[in-house]
Specification:
39% of the residues lie in helices and 16% in strands. It is of the alpha+beta class and 316 residues long.
Amino acid sequence: MNQELSCYEYEILEKHGIGRLGEQIFLGFDPNLNQQVMIRMLPADMISENDTFHRFMQGAKLTAALHHPNILTAYKAGEAEDGNIFLVTRFEEGLFLDKHLKVHGKFNEDEASDMIASLADALHYAWETKMIIHRNVCPETILISKDKRPMLTDFGIAKSRSLNLTDTLKGVILGNPQYMSPEQVRGEKELDFHSDMYCLGLVFYEILAGFPAFHNKSPETLMSMQENRQPVSLKFRNPDLSERCVKTINRMLEKNKSRRYPSWNELKEDLEKLSGRMEATSEHNLPDEAGKYKISSAAGRIRSLATMMLTKLGRR
């Protein structure tokens, strides 16, 4: 297949799939950038469906407003000569997180902490710059690129408090029940970044446990569980996890948002401590299993050895 997208210079190379809103997804080529791109096309016959059209266009506008290494870059959105609406984004080879987990299994603590820290930084950026809440943070909207970089995608149900965008879906509870915050379940109007933080906590739990925090075939039951139930202990699912990691996730998953982290910065600080936890831990709370942890850099190994030597000297 090699046809030009009418009105613009993109070439469509092959069909890639169908999106969540029913839009067609194509692998394309931009001769100006000399690189492959991803083209999402909403057919003209679907534009009459107001909610679908609104969600597609809002997602396109919000994505285009964000520029962050962990958010899939949007290049252009518009209407083609044949009436189709399209969004052109950067093409990244990789797998969405749900498929990545099926192929590669759960993450270790270092990998998971690094990934969640990157996504937290992206969500922090979206909130601080445009007051954007994603509202659909889940494995199906997180792309893991070939170089293992996580990227947020699909801002179709995102909401911004600062951009002049009309929410035509007021009164409708949006999101995936398996990855919704309690305040989303209740249909609260004034959501803030704490809602995305809870959803990111659900993802954090799943990539370490190998299982979703909540699982049920009934959407209604799942929504009730998000509001009223606690997930199975992470230590039961994965006994090798550090207490610091478990406490971080538990705080992200507090049902009352006032008990979650008060800012993205404070969460990111704890995630950074997890990545370098052997440096951040004192002799009084050093985990028993610390010797099992892998330290990624030679500098980290030297610092850890120095800490152990100083501890021994202090006990003499």
